[in-house]
């Protein structure tokens, strides 16, 4: 297919996304108004899969043994690549959709619907993967382990943000629940018989803070107290805190984990208490595919958007899409919808604003056009896949 034909097909894709504008806005705003936290996204799954089912996609829910995960597939002509559009839809406790997952999930669905409508003879398979619990639980990690990405040639989503970027990185991370066990006693009449789990936990916070100067500058450690006792006149028998540990890579994260957990256990032992640590799944660092990011950037620019450079240092979080990037060609670009930062009330408001809805449509268009590039341009697909293979070979040598 020549460049003129590709431009014409992309124009049809843009028109197809616009034709779904009302439906997509309705889905995104409905999910926003009904936030569901990790692994509880039952309604969001229904709202996202309904138009896919109606359009004839083969939809399977409960994949990877996760009740709120789904896989929706449409295949044009056989023999082409399998492109996964990733849908996120979990909310943050208290803040709702302060990371814009109502937009992420809906834009993936919009891109898939537009491709099917505009390119019925497309050589390839378009798969929408509904990935729950990105904020807390690592749905994509579980789906990776269950083989949902084994046949995927490229995977992508588009995240709302305060800047439009295509190559922003992310830190490896793990969440850890710190449990402290002491002995209950009356705090006034018999304090000598008690062991304070609260003092053990406070010691642990101090010990962790004391480690910070000995970590690399990109290490991030942050925690909250989730249980601090029942009453001030009762020496707490059990206390609990939840931390997130982050580092540039999984290998560097391992060093952080070892130091922090050793400090926590000694801090508890110092007052005669005991500490136990319950870990969540490890989110890998992000492996951005530059060839794929280049395709996405050109499509954003074709929409009239200016693509910014990512921060040279700092300014990044973590995402379970990092684990997907260990298995296949992956990108996690961003599209600007506001000046506010994520995980704030202002960003929650932005993800239901008019600019948020404009960003939704722009994201769907860029996703659809980039998926089309991979299916229609053999050289583009070859570049993307060869880059991933080279990266994997280099990684395996290091291991």
From TrEMBL:
**Biological process (GO) annotations?**
folic acid catabolic process
Q: Which CDD domains match?
A: M20_ACY1L2-like (cd05672)
Any one GO CC term of this protein is: cytoplasm
Q: Which molecular-function annotation in GO is an example for this chain?
A: para-aminobenzoyl-glutamate hydrolase activity
- Name all Peptidase M20 dimerisation domain ranges: 176-268
**Top-level taxon:** Bacteria
Q: State the similarity comment.
A: Belongs to the peptidase M20A family.
Q: What is this protein called?
A: Peptidase M20 domain-containing protein 2
